[in-house]
Amino acid sequence: MDAKKVIEYALSQVGYKEPSGKKNWNKYAEDIDKNYPRWYGSCGKKQWLDWCSVFVDDCFIQTYGVENAHKLLNRPNDNLGAVVSFAYNYLKSINRVGKNPEPGATIYFQNSRGLSHTGIVVSCNATSVTTVEGNAGPNNDSVVKNTYSRSSGYIYGYGYPV
Fold first, then answer.
1. Which residues contact 67 (CB under 8 A, 6 or more apart)?
2. Facing residues of 107 across strands?
């Protein structure tokens, strides 16, 4: 996987915002629901739901094509990866998760209820990790670039697409 490609695509989406009055409507779910109906398949359409994981999925689909995205993210057709914990567990099932960030990896965040959010690692150094995340920002309605301390308790871990 050429991580630069997915990072470049994700960065090109920074600034996207849900249309006014359409909470959790987003072009990423629309694209997957319309053009790749077997991605989530019988699990249902993902429009109007929290969309951080849908954003990550669409970045990989747009960058590498749907078949390669299936392989990279270890996703079957009819996958449950729109739910953050399932997205993480698909990679965990093939030992592709860990605690060290790397560009192009998926990052997983936790709250008091467990895994709660995801994004794509853009860059990292000894003390920080920079990401692109969908369904984020002050109103949870945008694609934003964020930087976190690597020691943040909010960070659960990382997934390494194969």
1. none
2. 119, 158
